[in-house]
Amino acid sequence: MPKMSLWLSSFVLAITTSVQAQTVATQNPSLNSLPTVQLLLSKMSQDAARINYRGSFTYQNQTSELQSFRVEHWIENGIEHDRFLFLNGPERVIVRDGQRVDCKAMGDELLQGSFASLGKTLIKMDQLYQFEIRGRERVAGRWSRGLQVIPKDPYRYGYLLNIDEETGLVLKSWLIDETARPLERYQFISIELDPDFNQFKSKSLLREHKAVADVTPCNPTEFTKPSAWNVGWAPPGFVFAGQRKLANGQSMLMYTDGLTTFSIFIEATTSFVPEGTGKRGATLAYMSRLVVKDVTYRVSVVGEIPVAAAAKIAQNITGL
């Protein structure tokens, strides 16, 4: 299949992480009365990886047409599996087979609210974002509760979320900038919980892309900082979540604040390195040049963060 763009690959994996980290199987009744922020956040942050679901959702950013996807997620023998089928254009499917459900990378721990095991230096989410409950709304035939997530500094974006009252699943999400303009939005239009996972074993498509499920190994307690680079500044609350050596020789470093992530790509080059920014929806790519011991490196900061944050991150990277 044609090579997928970076933003789309990142988006599809982000949707999987968001659904897994923000879904919870619960036996409590629907939240017909106004819930507290703590209750709603608790439902979103529980480990719901064991839930099976399938559904269809739409996605759009500022520069793309409305796109439609079908998603299938199930657990088999303790292993997570996902299939993302493109419903527009050529028939394509992204396959994502993960780790055992009890195997958590550092970024997953943060996304699921497990701050205690990551040290006293981590800043809790309520120090980074303000949370406000909004009204009820039906999304994909299910009642949801609105939640506005407002950043407390200029280094991250805000969210408008609709949370399924029964399960805690995010049924609709708008990522918004500092002027409240939507940068990216996705919304389920249909969803089925706990279907028979045997139905997911459909025929393989020719245009199939195998996606990598994780960034770091299980329980990566040794990964407290990059092994070859010094990132001198990151926005408050962002912590190092892992690293990988890519096939093209690039080093990839990943950071998260528990809700948003950005990655740093560093690659030695003998070519001219243009400096500047590119943007697709909320995904920003900031490129700069770094020279260490007479070797020139191309540095790219990619993520759903404002340009001021990306530029400051790139300007404060040095070699060890």
From TrEMBL:
Question: Where does the record place the MucB/RseB C-terminal domain?
Answer: 225-317
Residue span of the signal peptide, if any? 1-21
Q: Which UniProt keywords apply?
A: Periplasm, Signal
Cellular localization per UniProt: Periplasm
Q: Which InterPro entries match?
A: MucB/RseB_C, MucB/RseB_C_sf, MucB/RseB_N, MucB_RseB
Per UniProt, residues of the MucB/RseB N-terminal domain are 38-199
* Cross-referenced PANTHER family: PTHR38782, SIGMA-E FACTOR REGULATORY PROTEIN RSEB (PTHR38782:SF1)
The family classification in the record reads:
Belongs to the RseB family.
The name this protein goes by in its record:
Sigma factor AlgU regulatory protein MucB
Which organism encodes this protein? Answer: Cellvibrio zantedeschiae
